[in-house]
Give the backbone structure.
Amino acid sequence: MTSVLNPGPLLLLLCLLHGSEETCPSMCLCVSDTVSCSSSGLAKLPQSLPPFSVTLDLSHNHLSWLGAGSFNRMPRLENLRLTHNQIGSLGHGSFNNASSLRHLDLSSNKLHVVEQHYFQGLWRLEELLLYNNKIAQVEAGTLSGLSSLKKAYFSLNQITHFPFFSIQDHSHPFLSMLDLSSNRMSRLPWEDVKALPGLVQRGLYLHNNSLICDCSMYSVFWHWDLRDYDSLRDFTDEHTCTIYGNPRASIRFLRHSRFFQNCTLEKAVSMPVTVLLSNVVVLEGERVHLDCQTSLSSTDLTFTWLSPSKGYITQSSINDTLISLFPNGTLEIQAVKVNDSGLYVCTAVDIKQALNATREVNVTVLLPPAEPFNTGYTTLLGCVVTMICILVYLFLTPCRCSCCKQPKPPAIPIATYDPSTLTSVFSPSIRDQHKIQPNRHVAFMEPMLSEEGTEWTPES
């Protein structure tokens, strides 16, 4: 009986392999869902790229421009590396149909202006790298729509003004790092800087700029230094300012603050954005109330709490019956646990006036101490021990009174052999076996007879 081989599946497999080879450009390397065209001398994008790609590396090439729909056939693209190219501008709709993009690296290029249409549609973008370009201007709507953005790097550019007012808590709730270091900013809109969400202020890097020394500038940095922000602690010596704008007269104002002795720092703390530090120590299982008292006086405020164990807490997102968020911003936890310890940050937002303020509360939950002995049980135990000691004394202690009759020592049988035949010098005489030696110092040694017949003890 002969079997006929069906060529259908084999032909289908060959077609799929041939199709995958065609979609991978010859100058690129395609492995799984990663395509690497790095250092390939490309002056423009390859005509065909695998549509299933998740990571695309086009770094170290000669690309100078990205046109509309450059990646519209790559809907799964999440990581795009375009670093070390000659890109000077991006066309409208360059990232159409690339809304899955999470990591975009455009560093070390020749961008001069970051226009507001560059990143439209990238609402899932989490990390944006634009450092080491020629950027001198960042338009106001550049970061609009990037609601998932966590980190943005603008360092090593020529930026003189930045649209801080466009970053708000409801528009960028996850932004925790904004790097503007090593630019050309001299005067910043400090009111807009102080209105930034607390998470952004904590991760705002402004070192190596040509800031002009004044009280408004110093009060903001003093405020951050008081809270030991990493952005200041890690770059203490790189924070400099120029006196009266003279580049030759610059000081490291975080180390030498005598120039600002006449500044009224209290006003900086009482500005619309105020962070109040407090500590709360409770025992596990207790109820705790965390207030959100800020300097905002409006009655139309919305409150959001950032919890170390439960993330963001709002009135609409609470799904735990043990947590309550009151209209005045107070957060109630009915029975705290040890893992609830940490820093709680409340953000109060005044949408009408475009202001927000934060309140930080450090909560420490301790285990309850061990329950001490009850006083009644302690007294009863003392009585029982005392009675036992009395009984032991009465019935087990030997009587040493003179009136007590001393018991006779037990009779020792006398051997029938002649004691003169014993050869051991430590053998006592028969007549001395009944004699008590009360002052012996060697416990197991009996008195002996000397050659003259007198008693000999170890002391003699």
User: Anything to note?
Assistant: The first strand starts at residue 29 and ends at 31. The CA atoms of residues 341 and 364 lie 5 Å apart.
